[in-house]
Specification:
The complex is a heterodimer of chains A (399) and B (376).
Chain A (H helix, E strand, L loop, with lengths): L1 H39 L16 E9 L2 E8 L7 E6 L7 E3 L9 E6 L9 E7 L4 E6 L10 H23 L2 H5 L3 H32 L6 H20 L7 H28 L7 H19 L9 H24 L3 H29 L3 H6 L1 H21 L2
Antiparallel strand pairs in A: 1-2, 2-5, 3-6, 4-5, 6-7
Chain B lengths: L1 H25 L2 H15 L3 H4 L6 H4 L12 H4 L3 H4 L3 E2 L2 E4 L5 E17 L2 E8 L7 E5 L3 E8 L8 E2 L21 E7 L4 E6 L5 H6 L3 E7 L9 H7 L4 H4 L2 E10 L9 E4 L5 H4 L2 E4 L4 E7 L6 E6 L4 E5 L8 E4 L1 E5 L3 E6 L7 E6 L3 H5 L4 E6 L4
Parallel strand pairs in B: 1-5, 3-6, 5-10, 11-14, 13-21
Antiparallel strand pairs in B: 2-3, 3-4, 6-8, 7-9, 9-10, 11-12, 14-19, 15-18, 15-20, 16-17, 16-19, 20-21
Helix pairs in contact in B: 1-2
The chains are: A alpha+beta (399), B alpha+beta (376).
Chain lengths: 399, 376
């Protein structure tokens, strides 16, 4: 019996497997046939109304150097598009394209122009395609693009330290003073943290959407921002709650991570802005950033007031929250494309949302009369102080 | 050359800045960082010209400020170098009263043309070319222009000349739909350098799409006894006229993205055509240019000759110059005239010409005369 049942069992097992494969292959085969028919028989010919193919060109990077101007363009047309001529400041200029030839949808090419640009002045690049369509790009203020040398790396690291690391460190240095606070003080501090994070969340999302608008259409900027925010929020929630709800040092680490991701996006944007000459760097502006970010340190300190972590933990938290600003500046000034800054800011926004949720749930858990804890005078004051401080200090840095 | 000169000046400026920057670098650290900014500026002095083999003189004159590549004249069906002296004199017959009847045949057709290397423009043309055929007749002749519209829109031929209202080429008087035919008839007068263009509406679109051409009426020496020699030199086919080098230049422009601003400027359509292939001119033979401005959207155009001056006959309707010894004239749309000059006392070389609207020059409208001792 076993001799007979064994093979029959195998055939039963084989048949469904064969059937599974068939039911995977059939839809794919039909898709293939549909594509073949569409491309060979051209049944949609009647839709062709004589209109030229849609063309789209996005400028992703601009490099000003001793050999002139280089721009990285990304094509987003319905068909491969050909750059016929390039104007700089309303003058046809010799250029080379790398790689040469038509640019397929989604592909990029470097356009090099031996143009004698003028320091501190504006220039306009206008790409004329084979159909006569034009795509303009404004260089608001022409300044030499930072090169990959150690000098500018060091300068950017100093700048990053001032806007990212220093304020977090200063904020964390309030730790000993904050340890003595009572229940109201704790409510105030936690709500202050929620408030500043709420500000950062809105700010990061708004910047992300703005940058996403500059990116090539095929990246679907706004959708990408929403999805990246949601994904990073859910991933961090899942990671954070793997071993229960995060409290204490774990929560502080998540806050530092969220702020760090935000600072990465911020660093990318600042680096790109300075690289493209869009912003001049003033002492006042840097101080503004420092002041703006001091509350971030207080926020990180809030959940660990009841603990006594070693000093190196503080150092690690500082680097986690502030260090990415340096990295962002480096990357932003060298390899800038709006979609990557938008992505970094969106991931940061998701991370910030996660810590907001965890902070609020911690506040709720700490009290028996949970919802009241959120609306206690100290908590409301803290929330308002957090948002208000961030908003007012942001006035120093928004241009 | 203006460009050469400004380049030299620029180089000189940079060297001075560089020297200044270096001197400062020896001084204080602050000054040195300032000089760093200047040296980076000093770096980019025409790198394209510096790299590779030395380009020919007529190309280096424009530096890097020129369109890239070549236009396919064969595909366009017209060669800008040949357009310069390609006159359409029609067919001649004699009327019962003994007068000459000159008949031209012109067909309107849609055609995509390459107006600058790689830039295609969906033009409306007369006889498949832009500008349309350069029609040339003699004062007093009877003219018959058989016009057929094989385009996709209504078109006409509106001549700048003296004619009856029903021959005017406006709606209701010679404006015809696709597939139709109309015969314009009038006497060739006054003599001069004129033009024709489509007068269908909207006018702007029909003009800037390419529907225009030169219309030259030579003076009849028999009717101009007081200036017979001048008239004979203007009359195509005479030995006196053969002593001149005559060129027709229609200053035009193209709005390739239809935003009511021109992307490409030129004479005779192709941007930089005569910059890349200079017009060969004999030193000892005088030059006569029939210049017509048909640029749309910009109120004015001009013609400036380097290193030389010319006499100008506004609209060409006189046999004595209306402006003597000038090196620049301006023309509004449909304004035209005749320029006369020579290089007898010049050394051979490249003499640039361009409008003195720098913007037009930089967007394609510039050229050069290559003045030589004799045809090689």
């Amino acid at each position: 019996m076993t001799d007979l049942s064994q093979p029959s069992a195998d055939t039963r097992a084989d048949r469904p497997r064969w059937a599974y494969l068939f039911w995977i292959a059939l839809p794919l085969a039909i898709l293939g046939l549909a594509i073949a028919w569409l491309t060979s028989a051209d049944p949609l010919a009647s839709f062709r109304n004589g209109a030229p193919p849609i063309e789209n060109l996005t400028f992703e990077r601009t490099i000003l150097g001793t050999d002139g101007i280089r721009v990285l363009v990304r094509a987003g047309g319905s068909e491969p598009m050909t750059i016929a001529q390039v104007q700089v400041d309303d003058a046809y200029w010799q250029y080379t394209q790398d790689p040469p030839g038509p640019i397929t949808r989604g592909a990029t090419a470097w356009i090099s122009l031996p143009y004698p640009w003028v320091l501190g002045e504006a220039h306009t690049i206008n790409v004329v395609t084979s159909t006569g369509t034009t795509f303009g790009h404004e260089i608001a203020v022409a300044v030499p693009t930072p090169t990959r040398d150690s000098l500018s790396f060091a300068a950017q690291a100093v700048l990053g330290a001032f806007v990212g690391i220093l304020p977090v460190a200063i904020g964390l240095m309030f730790y000993p003073a904050l340890r003595g606070v009572g229940r109201n003080g704790m409510d105030f501090l936690l709500s202050l943290t929620v408030g500043l994070l709420a500000f950062l969340f809105v700010d990061a999302l708004q910047d992300a959407f703005e940058l996403a608008g500059e990116a090539a259409a095929l990246f679907q900027g706004p959708t990408m921002v929403v999805l990246a925010t949601a994904a990073s929020f859910l991933l961090l929630m899942a990671a954070g709650r793997r071993s229960g709800t995060p409290t204490g040092l774990a929560l502080a680490t998540f806050i530092a991570l969220g702020i760090g991701l935000h600072n990465l996006g911020e660093g990318l944007a600042i680096g790109a802005a300075f690289a493209s000459g869009a912003a001049g760097l003033g002492t006042f502006l840097v101080l503004g950033f420092t002041l703006h970010n001091i509350t971030e340190g207080i926020g990180i300190a809030a959940p660990i007031l009841k603990q006594r972590p070693p000093l190196r933990t503080f150092a690690a938290l500082t680097l986690l929250a502030g260090g990415p600003a340096v990295i962002g500046l480096w990357i932003g000034s060298l390899a800038y494309a709006p979609q990557w800054s938008a992505l970094a800011l969106a991931v940061g926004a998701g991370a910030i949302l996660q810590v907001i949720v965890e902070l609020v749930s911690m506040q709720l858990r700490q009290r028996a009369d949970s919802t009241r804890a959120l609306f206690a005078p100290a908590a409301i004051t803290g929330l308002a102080a957090g948002v208000g401080f961030m908003y007012l200090t942001a006035m120093l840095v928004k241009i | 050359m203006r460009e050469m000169k400004s380049l030299l000046e620029r180089k000189l400026d940079r060297r001075l800045l560089l020297a200044g920057g270096l001197a400062a670098a020896g001084g204080t650290a602050v000054a040195a960082s300032g000089a760093r900014g200047q040296t980076s500026q000093a770096g980019h002095e025409m790198p394209a010209a510096a790299a590779g083999e030395k380009p020919p003189a007529h190309l280096s004159a424009h530096g890097s400020m020129i369109t890239v590549g070549e236009v396919d004249d064969a595909r366009n069906g017209f060669d800008p170098s040949k357009l310069l002296s390609d006159w359409d004199t029609g067919t001649i017959s004699t009327l019962p009263d003994g007068r000459t009847l000159r008949t031209f045949e012109v067909t309107a057709e849609d055609k995509e043309i390459e107006i600058a290397p790689g830039i295609m423009f969906p033009a409306w043309t007369y006889n498949g070319r832009v500008p349309g055929p350069s029609l040339r007749a003699t004062e007093g002749e009877r003219l018959k222009i058989v016009f057929r519209n094989q385009g996709s829109h209504p078109h006409s031929m509106h001549f700048h000349g003296i004619h009856a209202a029903r021959m005017d080429g406006i709606p209701g008087a010679g404006l015809i739909g696709p597939g139709e035919e109309f015969v314009y008839e009038f006497d060739a007068r006054p003599f001069g350098c004129h033009l024709y263009h489509c007068h269908a509406l909207p006018l702007k679109r029909h003009i800037h799409k390419g529907m225009y051409g030169a219309f030259v009426i030579d003076p009849d020496p028999a009717r101009r006894p007081e200036y017979e020699a001048v008239a004979r030199s203007r009359l195509l086919g005479t030995p006196e006229n053969a002593g001149w080098q005559e060129f027709v230049m229609v200053m035009n422009a193209f709005d390739t993205n239809f935003d009511n601003e021109n992307e490409v400027y030129a004479v005779n359509t192709v941007a930089h055509a005569y910059a890349k292939k200079p017009i060969r001119v004999l030193k000892d033979k005088p030059v006569r240019i029939y210049l017509v401005n048909i640029v749309e959207f910009d109120p004015i155009n001009s013609f400036h000759l380097h290193g030389n001056f010319f006499d100008y006959y506004n609209q060409g309707t006189t046999l004595t110059p209306t402006l003597k010894t000038v090196d620049l004239i301006t023309q509004c749309q449909a304004e035209r005239g005749i320029l006369e000059f020579h290089f007898r006392e010049h050394e051979p070389g490249l003499y640039m010409f361009h409008p003195h609207q720098s913007e037009f020059t930089e967007l394609g409208w510039s050229g050069m005369f290559d003045v030589v001792e004799a045809v090689s």
